[in-house]
Design brief:
Blueprint: E1 4-11, H1 15-26, E2 29-34, E3 50-56, E4 62-67, E5 80-86, H2 89-100, E6 104-111, E7 117-122, E8 128-133
Parallel strand pairs: 1-4, 5-8
Antiparallel strand pairs: 1-5, 2-3, 3-4, 6-7, 7-8
Length: 138
């Protein structure tokens, strides 16, 4: 599987409604996973809120989104990240190293509770990035 580049939108508690709206607009397959199903109930987190949502459309668009967890500021207009994802560990780690150099790392690139390697950083130009490396399928 080739690495993918797509937008990742953040919401202030209404990710489910927003992602369902985009499904009505673009069609396709929507998968939604809550904080409760992907890691239990951490203090201050509503287990029904969306930890990760992904819409894959017939036109080939992929749109991801989630509710901000407690403690992360929500600011309309800056509620996005660019997401790099795929199975090519070496390629995605190389991107991570370059993007995070001289930037700010919010979540170190490391194994996460859902099983993938994931990290979040803001590059030296202020663009927020997410990198997710999944296990090869097959």
């Amino acid at each position: 599987m080739a690495s993918l580049l797509n937008p990742y939108l953040s919401y202030d508690g209404d990710a489910r409604q927003a992602m369902e709206f985009y499904k009505e607009v673009f069609g396709g397959t929507l998968s939604l996973h809550t904080f409760g199903e992907l890691g239990g109930q951490a203090e201050g987190i509503d287990g029904d809120k969306i930890m990760h949502g992904m819409l894959q459309t017939p036109s080939g668009f992929t749109l991801m989104g989630a509710d901000n967890p407690p403690g992360m500021e929500y600011k309309a207009g800056t509620n996005f990240s660019v997401s790099l994802s795929g199975e090519d560990d070496a390629e995605l780690r190389a991107y991570w190293e370059k993007l995070s150099a001289d930037g700010n790392v919010a979540v170190p690139l490391d194994k996460q509770m859902w099983g993938d390697v994931f990290g979040m950083c803001t590059d030296k130009f202020g663009v927020p990035w997410m990198v997710n490396i999944s296990e090869p399928q097959g």
